[in-house]
Amino acid sequence: MPIEARFAQGPWEKLPDLLSTGRIDVVLDGYEWMPERARLMRASLPYYIYELQLLARSDTPGVERGWNWLMAEPRKKIGVLGGSAAERWLAEHCTKAELVSYDGVTNAMGDVVLGRVDATLQDLPIAITYARDFPALRATGELVGPGRYVAYVRRADEDFGAAIDRAILALRANGTLESIFKRYGCWTKAQQDPVLLALPAAGAEDGPEPAFLARYGPRLLEAAGMTVLLSIAAFPLAIALGILVALGRRYGPRWLAWPLGLYVEVLRGTPLMLQLFVIFYVLPSAGIRLDAFFAAVLGLAVNYSAYEAEIYRAGLQAVPAGQMEAALALGMSRGLALRRIVLPQAVRIVIPATTNDFIALFKDTSVCSVITVVELTKRYNIAAMSHPADVLPLAVLAGVLYLAMSWPLALLSARLERRLHA
User: Fold this and answer.
1) What is the pLDDT of residue 209?
2) Under CATH, which number does the domain 12-192 receive?
3) N or C: which end of the chain has fewer CB within 10 A?
4) How far apart are CA 280 and CA 285, in angstroms?
5) Which residues of the chain have pLDDT under 50?
6) Which H, E and C letters describe the chain, residue by residue?
7) CA-CA distance, 340 to 416, in Å (whole number)?
8) Is residue 354 within 8 Å of residue 414, measured between CB atoms?
9) So where are the chain's domains?
């Protein structure tokens, strides 16, 4: 019976989850065969043998030496798609290089052009497809890490998987696959390797794995440290900016209120992700380049400064007007009265709301993964994609770490609030 193909779009790294929930019936999007995936899903016969191509800027000194250039001093930064076979191959074979994980292949290639990373390792079809969009890049070094592109279906759909296998064998036999790959310049000798064209025997590429906590604990803890660092670096800046904006709108000259109000509304009305994209990917075209960490801190601080501005403006309005009048009557300057009389009372009033914002910022650090910052949520996503069988325990562990970091803050805030009100 003929089958009608209907394409469903979803995040690349979440396609196995969509398959397991029944929202799609087959994963067919350049997914590599991996033993962890094959244990959970039924893999088809390979329809393409991919190899990995190193890409770097054409004008980089020594880049013609390929892998020898990459492994030489100083240490190189390599951009790679998070959770991909390329990332795994680099982690095993290029221990001297620093890996930078991306959510998309074109972001990694663009950052090589901008000089944020030294090179990127991509599947050969990707390198060929996007070559015209990144003329500043050149392929260097021999192809490495051959692997298999397969289609995945649910384990229960064995008949469907067998039908896909038969179709792939027929397309190989009549030359259709070869014709398609040659049309796009992706045909290589590897497509005729009988070893690679067969799936490994069950357990052939499995090795002994350490215990769950030993395998994931250190990396998740390291990523949790990045989450804490981003939070404690960004939030004081957000508070300082927010107070300045609130004071300007409340006590500044009349002409200043409108642009400060516009500042607040623009930042509150646009997503944090979009603001991070502008800071990290758009500003370099104007000559302003920031490291990913500093771009993340700036983006979080600026975004949350708008919310802090409104919180502190409400706090300032809650302080009776007679407080300022009394301070001025005692001979204080307006600035001194704000610092010594009005602002301390406003701070006490807004502590609960400020704490809530800090906890919210703490969790919003996960958005910084879009500009290559590997914090706790990003590390969880990478681990879950490489080891789908561990998705649930990984989610529990990540949740416990988030709670362990945010709960003490809530307790400290409650204690501080009680002391100030006393």
Assistant:
1) 60
2) 3.40.190.10
3) N
4) 10
5) 204
6) CCCCCCCCCCCHHHHHHHHHCCCCCCECCCCECCHHHHHHEEECCCCEEEEEEEEEECCCCCHHHCHHHHHCCCCCEEEEECCCHHHHHHHHHCCCCEEEEECCHHHHHHHHHHCCCCEEEEEHHHHHHCHHHCCCEEEEEEEEEEEEECCEEECCCHHHHHHHHHHHHHHHHCCHHHHHHHHCCCCCHHHHCCCCCCCCCCCCCCCCCCCHHHHHHHHHHHHHHHHHHHHHHHHHHHHHHHHHHHHHHHHCCHHHHHHHHHHHHHHHHCCHHHHHHHHHHHHHHHCCCCCHHHHHHHHHHHHHHHHHHHHHHHHHHHCCHHHHHHHHHCCCCHHHHHHHHHHHHHHHHHHHHHHHHHHHHHHHHHHHHHHCCCCHHHHHHHHHHHCHHHHHHHHHHHHHHHHHHHHHHHHHHHHHHHHHHC
7) 19
8) no
9) 12-192, 212-421
360 and 231 Cβ atoms separated by less than 8 Å: no
State the CATH class of domain 212-421.
mainly alpha
- In this structure, the number of other CB atoms found within 10 A of the CB of residue 277 comes to 17
pLDDT recorded at residue 78: 94
pTM: 0.78
Using CA atoms, how far residue 167 sits from 29, 413, 420, in Å, is 17, 63, 73
**The predicted structure's pLDDT at residue 337:** 86
The pLDDT tens digits for 406-415 are: 888 778 777 7
pLDDT at 420: 64
Q: Which residue has the tokens 């910084």?
A: 368
In this structure, the number of other CB atoms found within 10 A of the CB of residue 287 comes to 6
Q: What amino acid occupies position 330?
A: L
pLDDT score, position 331: 85
